[in-house]
Amino acid sequence: MIRRFYRDELTELEQELLRMGALVEDQIRASVRSLTEQNLALAKKVIAEDDRVDHMEMDIEQRCLTLFALEQPLAGDLRTVSTALKIITDLERMADHATDIARITLRLEHEPLIKPLVDIPEMGRLASSMVRLALNAYVHRSLEEAATMIRLDDDVDHLYAAIFRDLLEIMRDRPDTVGQATHLLFVANYLERIADHATNIGEWVIYIVTGERRK
Amino acid sequence: MIRRFYRDELTELEQELLRMGALVEDQIRASVRSLTEQNLALAKKVIAEDDRVDHMEMDIEQRCLTLFALEQPLAGDLRTVSTALKIITDLERMADHATDIARITLRLEHEPLIKPLVDIPEMGRLASSMVRLALNAYVHRSLEEAATMIRLDDDVDHLYAAIFRDLLEIMRDRPDTVGQATHLLFVANYLERIADHATNIGEWVIYIVTGERRK
């Protein structure tokens, strides 16, 4: 009976984690869209929703601690619970970066974009896909899916380097753009970090399956 | 006898965590010094030492998981072990940012600094002090020390804003500086994040003492 309760708890923990992941993925997409469309209402929504992400993190944290305290999870289950505790930190940081991006949308409120954004939305799509793929790999406990996802991080890094070069050139040619261009550089930096956090989740999946930690 | 073993394990866990914290504090100071003195050897040392930080994190992680698995820590001890698991993530991220700064030192190898750095080293001193204060608050389980440390984050934020304004002005006046100035902006951003991670640790101390999570 107690074991039954325990299995239910583990299932619920996993579902909560996936709900948090889906919200974070939405937040990333919405933040990039708010920037490219200069949609202030959407940016404000992203900032407001961050509280929900924080609450979900704390709720899942509490579930994990309760599971540790009331049960004595063994080997595989222990890894599931302790990695959940780590994965939510990565998810929460991603959501923080989404709000960082939304705040930049608000800052650029009164100025037209210095160029139509192409690479940044592309990077945003890649980064948010990585989050979904990482969570799929987690649900399926799939090494292959984790490895495929982690490889996408190289594409993100290439895009980041291209955006960096591009924006530096624009700033050199048109010094009046440095304010906005700097903010766009930070957006690219935040997206690169989001992809890094997705990679972390992939590494946690590898740990759950193999018991091996690698970085 | 088992309980005795368990207390020793908790003490050792705490000491390992403090050793990791001291190393991370050194890494932060060294990274900023490598930049201001354009000391490439020091920058390379910081980058090389990051592996040690990663290993310490994984080692402490393993200790925590073993403690969860073999013992059934109750209330206060449970909080100690589970927050150790969170604090090491913050410490590891700080060290990552120190290596980010050291990499920027290497990138600027062939160019003189566009200005003598004053605010950045000041920000570095503040951020690394926050790390030490956060760990002291942790050792003493002191709410007061945690709160004092967290208040320093405002000073860091003010310095960050000042550095940002300053560098944007330099870029506007001297477009040839945008490459380096952008890198310096990122350095300031990394230091601001390091201070945020120190603040996280302060919040974990508050949780250990009160059982209340706040952000």
Automatic annotation (TrEMBL), chains A, B:
> Which Gene3D superfamilies does this chain map to?
Phosphate transport system protein phou homolog 2, domain 2
The residue ranges of the PhoU domain are: 17-104, 120-205
Q: Where in the cell is it found?
A: Cytoplasm
The GO annotation for biological process reads:
intracellular phosphate ion homeostasis; negative regulation of phosphate metabolic process; phosphate ion transport
**InterPro entries, alphabetized:** PhoU (IPR028366), PhoU-like_sf (IPR038078), PhoU_dom (IPR026022)
Grouped into one coarse class, the protein's main location is: cytoplasm
Task: Give UniProt keywords alphabetically.
Answer: Cytoplasm, Phosphate transport, Transport
- Which Pfam families does the record cross-reference, listed alphabetically? PhoU
Highest taxon above the source species: Bacteria
Is Transport among this UniProt entry's keywords? yes
Q: GO CC terms on record?
A: cytoplasm
Q: Name the family the entry cites.
A: Belongs to the PhoU family.
Q: How does it assemble?
A: Homodimer.
The entry's function note states: Plays a role in the regulation of phosphate uptake.
Name the chain's protein.
Phosphate-specific transport system accessory protein PhoU
Q: What is the lineage of its organism?
A: Bacteria, Bacillati, Bacillota, Clostridia, Eubacteriales
